[in-house]
Specification:
Distance between the termini: 75 Å
Radius of gyration: 26 Å
Strand content: 15-25%
Number of helices: 20
Helix content: 25-40%
Largest sheet: 8 strands, parallel, barrel
Low-confidence stretches: 464-477, 479-525
Strand order of the largest sheet: 1-2-3-4-5-6-7-8
């Protein structure tokens, strides 16, 4: 066996980081025979945001993807990324749901469970670790890496010891933002190796430009497995190129023994596939050293871009990146990895848009009061106090959060039966509903339509000007048809200083730049206090009944924005009349209710 083995992330983290997790199974399967010949330690192909993206955007059953990949990769282990007690969702689940999920994942094709917890709380690893051990599959416990005053080599060593004691078969240092410096990696691997007799895998994003050197030094220190990505989907917010690392180690004691020519064939395939997803490309394709301060992981950068576009605030990304550092400190320095990266990042967006902590998301409050586990450092007491008051709690939680969650699989199974209108339901469907209860119902309705398909977009032809009336003074105007987000708009271009031509009919208003579909128009308010959506998102719940009497500041609706929940509060007192129904996508500042 080679002294250093590689895990390729091309089927999961690469396109999550670069292409907003949009790669379809149909674009993965044709290259699987070649991938299966390489001799990887594993191929990471499931978990993370792929499950969410499958049902939210691709109309694919993620379980079917796993089964198809397992069949196409008979000689290669499939790795999944599992968020400990969060599984693949944004909350903690009861232990019985964790056990059912891990059992189903193993049955459908997962061979290596990479388990992590966003706040590195060992208590949040245990249920998933125990469940994975029962399946007989490989259990890899991942330490989320951060650079804060409270994250020291000794703290990581202590955590490694605890995770080894829980039953891990290997350890992973998970550097999700590219913060692990080469010489720090050397010292960290050496220290953990001295304390724990387990193989170590290194996962380091290339966002800051350090990852190739980091992997090399980690191998020198004794790391046995390295995460890489085939070159055509490497670098930027992704990872170090597989072929590059193979060549660096060739002829050395760390030689991987992998065939560069085979890897080049695979790279050529994905180079063509990548063209299908051009519209999802992240603009962060080089080395972004701002991340050395903001610590935003690669996968979140591309998502943050699209989320800011959705809010009409693309110009505020630098402010948000600076604010993330403030929020992370106030929240007790949690490592920025899903879901804490999303929680901290979204809160930073809202702080920039509305003022610091004027609007706390539900998930921010849960993190502040301990519902996600123990954070590495003390939190800002004033922000914690605000969260406790809103949640009507007396003090923070100090025990394992899942201890407060009674078994819930049976209840979720009954809800899924009701949703599907059947007496029997597959365990996998129950788990899909459990992970994303707001998205799964729509997916179940459309599942039979089959997956979406992306193709490379043809080069846009140069616009041919159509004849247009000449403005006063004889200057010639030209009329063009411009396509924006799939909609055609007629545009008249005229020389500077000439008068506009009066249109024969009112022109169609161009939509605001947005990554989301245009929101349906709300009924015009007829008087009283108007309540507007603070951000673009989806109305997911009414907090009061239609016609109820409410007072100023009372929560009347919940909106989901950027995967987080935010309360919409009454702007005055009176009888509530809702202008939009639940499930409606709304734009920022769109009227959603009125008070009479």
């Amino acid at each position: 066996m080679a002294k250093v083995q590689l895990t390729d992330l091309v089927l999961r983290d690469a396109h999550q980081s670069l292409l907003a997790t949009r790669m379809t199974t149909a674009d993965m399967l044709p290259i699987c025979p070649q991938l299966d010949k390489v001799g990887y330690f594993a191929l990471e192909a499931w978990g993370g945001a792929t499950f969410d993206s499958c049902i939210r955007f691709l109309n694919e059953d993620p379980w079917e993807r796993l089964r198809q990949l397992k069949k196409a990769l008979p000689n290669t282990r499939i790795m999944m990324l599992l968020r400990g007690q969060n599984l693949l969702g944004y909350r903690h689940y009861a232990d019985d749901v964790v056990a059912k999920f891990v059992e189903a994942a193993a049955k459908n094709g997962v061979d290596v469970f990479r388990i992590f917890d966003a706040v590195n709380d060992p208590r949040n690893f245990k249920a998933a670790t125990d469940a994975a051990k029962k399946t007989g599959k490989h259990v890899q416990a991942a330490i989320s890496y951060a650079t804060t005053p409270f994250h020291t080599i000794q703290s990581y060593v202590d955590l490694a010891k605890e995770l080894a004691a829980e039953g891990a078969d290997s350890l992973c240092i998970k550097d999700m933002a590219g913060l692990l410096k080469p010489y720090d990696a050397y010292e960290l691997v050496k220290a953990i190796k001295k304390a724990v007799d387990l193989p170590i895998e290194i996962h380091s994003h290339s966002t800051t430009g350090m990852s190739v050197a980091t992997l090399a030094k980690a191998a020198e220190a004794g790391a046995e497995i390295l995460d890489t990505v085939i070159s055509s989907l490497a670098m930027g917010t992704s990872h170090s190129p597989t072929e590059t690392m193979v060549e660096i180690f060739k002829g050395t004691p760390y030689d991987t023994g992998l065939d560069t020519n085979l890897l080049l064939d695979i790279a050529a395939y994905f180079r063509e596939v990548r063209k299908n997803y051009k519209k999802f490309e992240s603009s962060f394709l080089g080395a972004d050293t701002r991340i050395l301060v903001s610590q935003v992981p690669g996968g979140m950068l591309s998502n943050l871009e699209s989320q800011l576009k959705e809010q009409g605030a693309s110009d505020k990304i630098d402010e948000v990146l600076k604010e993330i550092a403030v929020v992370q400190k106030d929240f007790g320095y949690p490592p920025l990895v899903t879901p804490t990266s999303q929680i901290v990042g979204t809160q930073a967006v809202f702080n920039v848009l509305f003022g610091r902590y004027n609007k706390l998301t539900g998930e921010s409050m849960d993190l502040l009061v301990g519902k996600y586990g123990k954070c590495p450092a003390p939190k800002n007491p004033e922000v914690v106090k605000k969260a406790l008051e809103t949640l009507k709690m007396e003090k923070e939680i100090t025990h394992r959060p899942a201890d407060d969650i009674p078994n819930e699989f049976a209840k979720l199974e009954e809800e899924t039966k009701k949703l599907l209108g059947t007496e029997k339901v597959a365990v996998e469907d129950v788990l899909t509903y459990a992970m994303f209860p707001k998205v799964a119902p729509d997916f179940f309705k459309k599942r039979d339509q089959g997956p979406v398909k992306f193709t490379a977009e043809p080069e846009a032809p140069k616009a041919a000007p159509a004849a247009a009336a000449a403005p006063a003074g004889g200057a010639q105007a030209a009329k063009y048809v411009v396509n924006v987000n799939g909609a055609d708009y007629t545009v008249v271009v005229r020389p500077e200083g000439t008068m506009a031509i009066a249109p024969a009919a009112a022109p169609q208003a161009a939509p605001a730049a947005s990554a989301a579909p245009a929101a349906p128009a709300a009924a015009a308010p007829s008087g009283g206090h108007v309540v507007e959506a603070p951000v673009a998102g989806t109305i997911i719940k009414y907090s009061v009944n239609e016609g109820a009497s409410v007072s100023a500041g009372q929560t009347i609706m919940i909106i989901e924005s950027m995967k987080m929940e935010l309360e919409i509060k009454a702007t005055g007192s009176g009888s509530i009349h809702f202008l939009v129904s639940t499930g409606t996508q709304v734009a920022a500042h769109q009227p959603v209710a009125e008070l009479k």
